[in-house]
Amino acid sequence: MLQLEGTKCSFLFCLGICVLICSAIYLKAKISSAPAAQQIFVSCRPFPQYCTALLTRGEETEWQRRDCLGEGYFLSSQLNCSRMVKELHFITSPLSREEEEYPLAFIITIHKELEMFARLFRAIYAPQNVYCIHVDDKSPLQYKTAVQRLAACFPNVFLSSVSEKVTYAGFSRLKADINCMRDLVKSPVRWKRVINLCGQDFPIKSNLELVRYMQSSKWRDRNMTPGIKQPSSMRYRTQTQHREIRGSHVAPRGKGHKKGPPPHKVQIYFGTAYYSLTRPFVDFVLQSQVARDLLEWSKDTYSPDEHYWVTLNHIKGYYIRDICIYGLEDLQWIIDKNSMFANKFETKTSPGALDCLEQWHRQKVLQQAEVPIQPEWQLAIETNKVPNASRGPS
Length: 394
Ligand SMILES: *[C@@H]1O[C@H](CO)[C@@H](O)[C@H](O)[C@H]1NC(C)=O
Ligand SMILES: *[C@@H]1O[C@H](CO)[C@@H](O)[C@H](O)[C@H]1NC(C)=O
What we know:
Blueprint: H1 2-33, H2 49-55, E1 61-65, H3 72-75, H4 81-87, H5 97-100, E2 104-110, H6 114-124, E3 130-135, H7 141-151, E4 157-159, H8 171-184, E5 193-198, E6 202-203, H9 207-215, E7 227-229, H10 236-239, E8 242-245, E9 249-252, E10 269-271, E11 276-278, H11 279-287, H12 289-298, H13 305-313, H14 329-338, E12 341-342, H15 351-368, E13 380-384
Helix pairs in contact: 1-2, 1-14, 2-15, 11-12
Bound molecules: 2-acetamido-2-deoxy-beta-D-glucopyranose (2 copies).
Family: Belongs to the glycosyltransferase 14 family.
GO molecular function: acetylglucosaminyltransferase activity
Protein name: Glucosaminyl (N-acetyl) transferase family member 7
């Protein structure tokens, strides 16, 4: 994904985490002078110190995690759904009328890191939405089974009916999304927009905030899939034929294998593979001859997901209103997007940061709710710090 991806990642990481880190530095002094608290849930990794400071309103209380979600949970052969939903604190009713009336569809493509996926999934899960999970066909059977088992616990979650062996920069990556779209349009859920994510993303916005953002005058009826006219440095991607070595890499076919011009004289754009698309646009993608021909033509291009959505979104007369996100202005979009999802989380490298972001997100979600909060929805509980009785009477 080259520069765009690189830029995106750095921005994402900053926006998602910098806030936490800065607060940490700011509040560190306060925390270190506070009395040590008794560990109640000793089995769970505690929140990092900077996080406790961020989440806690006063110095007298602190947050304790209520579960130590790990991948082992899903690997056991028996999964009792009703117990799992409670134990992992899934939100089981729509939290507002607004969200209920604007269901979202999600496409999540994954191939590893079961724990990370489970934590992403429970953060974005809402019963009115619909979720299509594309598990890489080359993932281990145990992994697929675990995801399948989790999905089977929810009526609005399913695995894509066709699963690809996904190759980086290959057509298979684009096909995975399209497979899910074909399934999603058949869902009884009347979703309004579809958002694609990968297993290492994590939301910054709550579902309510996403719904409001997508309905804002800036984005209502418009797709978020920023791009620019294909730069000359990227032209090789669509001017020469490529071959996908399934599950491995994409290679040019060599001299003499030039591609013809794109069908219907469309102008090729280049942008990110991440999007939020309106439902009518998805129907257009799946049904129109232009979209189908472009898909067929893209089969032997390099990284087609980085031109397909953007190019279709710029075809005059279909969905373009006055979208023009060009060049440097992309950055603004990427920044906006940043605050929707943070990217490239790995539980192994930054477990504390994810714990913290997860609790921060859930706290926000629950604070915004317009329905009574069920106690099981809390990921962590706020406890009083032990008073200084242990220091003995003065
Ligand atoms: C699942 O767990 C609940 C307790 O949370 C229990 O009442 C129920 O019988 C269990 N179901 C099965 C099939 O074991
Ligand atoms: C705890 O100790 C501090 C001084 O170390 C004191 O000011 C405070 O009143 C004590 N709090 C309680 C509840 O005893």
